[in-house]
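Protocol step 4 of 5: obtain the predicted structure for the target chain.
Materials: sequence only (see below). No template structures provided, no constraints applied. The aim of this step is simply to have a reference model before the mutagenesis design in step 5. Sequence pasted as it appears in the construct record:
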Amino acid sequence: MVLQSTSSSHQTYKWSYIWGNDVFSTSKTYCCLICHRQVHPSSQWLWRSVSQNKRKFFCWLLLNDRLSTRALLCRKHLHLPSYHCVLCFLAVEENLAHLFFHCPFSITCWGILHIVVPNMSDTFQVFESFKDQLQLPFFMDVIITMCWDIWTWRNDKIFRGIDNFVPRCKTIFCKEFAQVILRAKKTLQPHLSS
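Step 4 output (structure tokens):
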């Protein structure tokens, strides 16, 4: 905000914002704060998808490495009996890249969708590769749903002791994606259903 004098004789002051108006605008404030920052296109893909808001937020946490994986809990000095991935038996620390992209279980899940996981650890680059492979207008909804399912299966294994099998994963993915279809625009529904 800027304080401006309105007249020299009475010394009255008027508050106005740096965009030259006395009306507050959140969009103009947001632009003033971060419009110079480069944002990866996956952020736009994410927020424009038709997935549920809780899944969009989950994916935003994934993109920003803020999901409570065992590696993150270790960085926060939380003591656990093991920091290894529970979905495989490779004795590898459970971080985002391993859990969602490089775990044999996750690779098999992505393979159900005919997606080959690239050998990269940068989540943004992996999402770009998935986008290029899917070649669909609703690619982000597919990615969000599969990531959500992998996270759910991981939590089922940890907290409920439920083992996950690939045929079960395919069934659950189809069921979850059916909810996405219901939320989509009518013009996209035939493509989503196929």
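Step 4 remarks: The radius of gyration is 23 Å. The first helix runs from residue 26 to 34.
Proceed to step 5.
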